């Protein structure tokens, strides 16, 4: 008797179980993507829209504020992603190798990840306050004059990058600790038997084994950095810094859509940002593959 090959994709029950997930993906991921692309060619308000061709794209690509937003976004990504990864890797390795009661410290580092960014931003606003902030107080102890972190055009992006680094640490550390646990402990034992130092073990065993994890984190962090918005809103109290000095690409989209009431321009900027993130992610993955080989 011949056995029938079972193919779950052709079973009605399988599709029935998949339907809720597919419906959510279509409704909240696929549909908004196509809707944004369609609206990018429309002019007018949300109620009255007319086909405008490439008019919105022309306005976006000739808007100096949009290019400032892209520049700030790129600066945030370059300043945040590598520094956050390096600090996270150092902290994760210290916890994994040197610290007892690892689960306790993992819980401490994971708490900021599940805490509202808005709430953290309010706390950081007090930390960076030019008059009574703890950061300037600590700088004063070593003879450094107070810095206007929040209300200075020159310091807005620096403050945002510092905040972005801090908010990235929790997720990175947890993922890196998971990667460290997946390394065979026998490698470390054999290396120590032959008298390898901690630095040699890290350089020749730990780091090469963590390359896939670091590649994953760098991709996720880069995409998140180019979509930065909540940190800006939280840190500067709903604004983009003094004189829009901390405007990012997503904040530009938010401003055009909700504040200026120009959804077509906002959606055109969304499509451009989407293509830019897609290109950068593709190039980064190509680069990481070459480095991995």
Automatic annotation (TrEMBL):
Keyword terms of this UniProt record: Cell membrane, Membrane, Transmembrane, Transmembrane helix, Transport
Residue stretches spanning the membrane: 14-34, 74-96, 108-128, 134-150, 157-181, 232-253, 265-283
Ranges where the ABC transmembrane type-1 domain occurs: 70-284
Subcellular compartments: Cell membrane
Recorded topology in the membrane: Multi-pass membrane protein
Pfam family, any one: BPD_transp_1
InterPro entries: ABC_transporter_permease (IPR051393), MetI-like (IPR000515), MetI-like_sf (IPR035906)
Protein family per UniProt: Belongs to the binding-protein-dependent transport system permease family.
Designated name of the protein: Carbohydrate ABC transporter permease
């Amino acid at each position: 008797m011949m056995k029938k090959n079972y193919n779950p994709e052709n079973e009605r029950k399988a599709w029935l179980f998949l339907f809720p997930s597919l419906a959510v993906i279509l409704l909240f991921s696929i549909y908004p993507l196509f809707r944004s692309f369609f609206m990018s060619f429309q002019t007018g308000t949300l109620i009255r829209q007319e086909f405008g061709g490439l008019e919105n794209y022309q306005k976006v690509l000739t808007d100096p504020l949009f290019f400032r937003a892209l520049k700030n976004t790129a600066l945030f990504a370059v300043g945040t992603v590598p520094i956050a990864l390096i600090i996270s890797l150092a902290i994760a390795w210290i916890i994994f190798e040197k610290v007892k009661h690892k689960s306790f410290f993992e819980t401490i580092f994971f708490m900021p990840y599940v805490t509202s960014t808005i709430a953290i931003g309010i706390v950081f606003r007090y930390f960076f306050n030019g008059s009574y902030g703890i950061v300037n107080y600590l700088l004063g102890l070593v003879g450094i004059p107070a810095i206007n972190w929040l209300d200075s055009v020159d310091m807005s992006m620096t403050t945002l990058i510092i905040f972005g680094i801090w908010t990235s640490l929790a997720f990175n550390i947890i993922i890196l600790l998971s990667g460290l646990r997946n390394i065979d402990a026998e490698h470390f034992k054999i290396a120590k038997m032959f008298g390898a130092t901690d630095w040699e073990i890290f350089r020749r065993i730990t780091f090469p084994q963590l390359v896939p994890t670091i590649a994953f984190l760098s991709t996720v962090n880069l995409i998140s950095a180019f979509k930065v918005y909540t940190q800006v809103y939280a840190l500067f109290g709903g604004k983009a810094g003094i004189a829009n000095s901390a405007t990012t690409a997503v904040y530009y989209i938010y401003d055009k859509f909700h504040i200026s009431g120009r959804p077509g321009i906002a959606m055109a900027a969304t499509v451009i940002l989407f293509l830019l993130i897609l290109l950068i992610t593709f190039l980064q993955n190509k680069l990481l593959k070459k480095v991995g080989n």
